Amino acid sequence: MLVKCETKSNRVKGLSFHPKLSWILASLHNGTIQLWDYRIGSLIDKFEEHEGGPVRGVGFHMTQPLFVSGGDDYKIKVWNYKMRRCIFTLLGHLDYIRTVEFHDEYPWILSSSDDQTIRIWNWQSRACIAVLTGHNHYVMCAHFHPKEDLIVSASLDQTVRVWDTSGLREKRVSIGSGAPSGPQGGGDVFGTSDAVVKYVLEGHERGVNWASFHPTLPLIVSGADDRLIKLWRMNDSKAWEVDTLRGHFNNVSCCLFHPKKDLILSNSEDRTIRVWDVTRRTGIHTFRRENDRFWVLVAHRSSNLVAVGHDAGMVVFKLDCERPLAQSHGNHLYVVQDRDVHVIDLDKQLTGKQMASCRRASNAMTSGMKSLQFNSHNPSEINTLVFYTQDDGCYDLFVGPNQLSGDTHVSAKQGNAKAVTFTARNRFAVLQHSGSIGIYNLQNELSKKFDPPMPTDYIFQGGNNRILLKSEEKIVMYDLTARKVVDEVVVAGGVRYTIWSQNGQYVALMSKHNVLLAGKNLEYCHSFHENIRVKSGAWDENGVFIYSTLSHVKYCLPNGDSGIIYSLATPIYIMRVHKQFIYFIDREHNVNKQRLNSSEYLFKLALHRRQFNDVKMWITNGRICGNAVIGYLKQKGFPEVALHFVEDQQTRFNLALEYGHIEEAMTAAQEINEPASWNRLGLEALRQGNQQIVEMVYQKTKNFDALSFLYLITGDINKLKKMLKIAEMRQDVMSRFNNALMLGAIDERVKIMAEMGQIPLAALTAKAHNLTEYVAKLEEQLEGTDVSAHIPGNARLLAPPVPLCRPKAGDPGNWPLLRSVKQIFEKTTFENVPLPPDNFMDAMEEPEQTEKDAGMWGDDDVTAGAEPVVAGADWGDMGDLDLGEDLPAVDVAPVAEQGSTLTVGDSVEGKWLRARKLPADLVAAGEFEEALGLLKRRLGLINAEPLEPLFKEAYWATRSSLAGPPQAPSLLWPLLAEGNPKSRDVVPVIRFTSKAIIEKVKEGQKLTTGGKFADALGIFRSALQAIPLSAATDATDEKNLLDMIECAREYVNFTRLEVARKQLGPEALARNIEMAAYLTCCKVQSKTHQCLALQLAMFTSFKAQNFVTAASFARRIVQGSWGDQGAAIVPKAKQVLAQAEKTASDAHAINFDARGSAEALNVCQGSFKLIGASDAVAQCPFCASKYLASYKGKLCETCQLSEIGANTLGIQLRPL
């Protein structure tokens, strides 16, 4: 039984498959109707309008969005599942309704009831058109014949009846006609001449529970309370019993014919499902359930799915795997069709030549075939292996010529095995039942034999002279020549299939829901999870993996990006993807060819490989558009590419601003012509130092004050004078005064104050600046008031700042802070750009090999100093040099773009980032965002908050400040550990060196010795969080830093445990002992702390009368070597040991094995509970703290940085 979906619910009494969708209805004993999607195992909807008990019958309509239900409330309800409600109710039955179903063609509903009648209803006119009477006990079921005008019914009166309904055809109502019909046209209410009994089948000795037609043959099967299943045959004149099937030992609840195989399926209250061979009339297989009785059984009309309802829910299953046996190599497909091996040339046709015949199936239920493999290592002949599950595993080896003729038939060489696979041109490996692996030649003769390095469940092809060994969820690549393990990976769920690329460079390892992509040496590349089952896959010629699930065909790029190509109505099995065509096999074993819309993934692949000419071609010709593609381009750092196909001006404007393309943004802003867009453009232009665009924007928006200030800071005095005249024309007094102040025009300021009636201020200004031509006139108006007394003695001239440089004639005046961003699609721009290696990982991000040996250092005292106060800019606002390309002026004739031709040398930060891009270097350069991105890829960073003060500290540690000219800001100057600003190779000062981190850890150790665990926790965690921002100078320095990760991790967990233990209340005594015991499992390096932890655990256990536990700690103290402190503690431990051995009991049960090895115990750092030997474990990718698998995806509590269980590249502390 291949279970596809299993649900838990109240007892299931009725089931019905949807004819097209992957839905199933289940009616429950509590009156609820559930709608499930069995493909993904999720509940879609619930319908609860039936009242008064169980709903025993339910059925979908073949074409309409309807289903019908009947329950113990005597009601038949017709529902519209799109409207999610009952649309009408049919009343007429006088007792419980057992089964209901729609007719495939006519607008009829058939119902059977405990009122001993069968009724046929017209669901369009909502009337009963026939009442079939004749049974004299409960009618347990009634079903339409799939093709003929017949009905079969079963009753507790021990009979099965077949009814002829051909007379009811005249009462059929065509859809939409609305013609009424009712019982008055068919006789009386107790019977009708339009539906008559054709046969009465008697033979059961007790009540019959179920009867059903064969889908194509004139056969009927019935099951009864006499525990028998009877097979009946009928013709035009009579019906008779053919045979009786015995085996059930309780009432048979349901039985039916399998729609595609010569099988009968039955279930019973004896908790079994039995499968019977129709031809041989014998039992084939029995499926048992320990506690639940089975009540209903239903088969899908067009697939091999079967569903069964029991006391605690339902199960959807298949009897056999439908996967076709096939493998493609080059343009040839090797496939098993009708138990014959065929060879198909896919470039010519989709049908091929028969090569050989496979073994016959052992029974009608299963095919017995598991896999077909082709020997890709042998180009001179055709070698295929067909593996069977029958007879406890066996295989057929077929060796044939390359050129097959019409009469070619290759005989098989046979053998027994658990698994087989080809390993070389003339060799194949056999996993024997003993666990050994034998290497055979093509004459099926044993060449050599060896024991695998691990218990092996299955073997797969692994390349030339290599095999893949499967052990539960682990896959190991084993080299047969060197007799050693090459590499190993873990695939959740266990590998079921392996798919190699045509060139043998990549392999896809597929489990039920997971796929792992690896290189030819099994180096990890990428993995992903699908919520629904992964069925098949193939590599195309570009190294893209195309795979199918139950509902979609999808792709996965080398960089891990994936997407949907198209949806599927039925599952397919992909064999080959070549030149934008996909070749696949359906479940009927037909080979198909279909054009594949590969534009999207080829566009993304070209972008990944930086083949920008191909990107432009796919954008132009591939009809790629939409917000999803724009979002993808932005995510990958290429928003400018989207400008080549986005037509919406607002979107173009946003994209252009996002990557700093001022020309495109200005063009879009002119089309939009809204103040908000002009303001955003002005801000971006000002950030880039593009004076001309800023000037034009301020003019467009009439922002005169900002325009005046722009002229001031750029030193354009002439235009500032024009602004003064404009303010005078606008009669804006305040603007006139500000412009005069910025120009240093004292006489103008005096005029403005005099005009506004501020005579004293005007006189004071004129006299202070000795403007004699104004003083006399103003003093006349003051009428003798002397303002000289108000002039301070130390008054100085207030003059506007003098610009350091003024724009010359024809100079646009733009600030050339960055080199211009060129058009990305110009051929000359990228023709010399080297392509990244064609693999799944950036060459700069290969995981390094790290050493795990822990280092030691002394316990000498260090005076704990106060943590330095870090001053600096806000988080994430350290770099503002992302400026773009200069543009010509808008309001004057175009001039040459002189700013873009200026060659600017690399900054000091750019030099060290060009040589080395570690997180420490990026932070020192102020590239915080890029540093966080790198830490996310390397360490799975999900919480950046603890890094903010560390980032600021590391940044300001590389900066010094130099005083600038008067009225100018200070200059920030980088501090270098190697080189000088003029050197080519420079290295910044690293704040968090290995020495600084070791000193931090020593400070925490001193606090731990003093019992200040909360303070020590902060110190250790800070040291742990600072390690990613360090940089090693050599291998020794790198090893010291890696040792610090392990040391800091153990101390963080040590102090966390003790802090949490001290917060426990007096009532949690057992937990207190347990956590004290866990302290002794922490691998702290200081002997002092190890001894103190054992002492604490010993006294805590002894005081709580856990003497056995206390004795174990005392014994460890006595047996240990503790130096000077041992003289004081060992005698006490011996006393505790002697006292505890007298009692030898524990008052409190704790989860701690006192007799086990403390070093072998692992504590979950999320729950502080022991991790069992069989428990699944997830680790922090940075600090390697261990957690139970339920914590996967959460924040690591030890380092408070990384995501538990994240798949990352690992920490990098020096260049590769």
List keywords for this structure.
1216 residues, 4-stranded antiparallel β-sheet, 26 helices
Compute the number of helices.
26
Alpha carbon gyration radius:
42 Å
Chain-averaged pLDDT: 82
Query: Approximately what portion of the residues adopt beta-strand conformation?
Result: 25-35%
Overall body shape? globular
Q: Largest sheet, described in full?
A: 4 strands, antiparallel
Distance from N terminus to C terminus (CA atoms, Å) equals 52 Å
Question: Would you tell me the structural class of the helices and strands?
Answer: alpha+beta
Strand order of the largest sheet: 1-30-29-28
Helix content: 10-25%
Spans with pLDDT under 50 lasting ≥5 residues?
A: 173-192, 817-903
What's the count of strands? 65
Q: How would you name the oligomeric state of the polypeptide chains in this document?
A: single chain
Write up what this structure looks like.
By secondary structure, the chain is α+β, with helices and mostly antiparallel strands. The protein is built from 26 helices and 65 strands. It has a four-stranded antiparallel β-sheet with strand order 1-30-29-28, with no helix packed on it. The protein has a four-stranded antiparallel β-sheet with strand order 2-3-4-5, with no helix packed on it. A four-stranded antiparallel β-sheet has the order 6-7-8-9, with no helix packed on it. Helix 1 runs antiparallel to helix 2 (612-621) and helix 23 packs antiparallel against helix 24 (1087-1103). The radius of gyration is 42 Å and the shape is globular. It starts with a strand and ends in a 28-residue tail after the last strand.
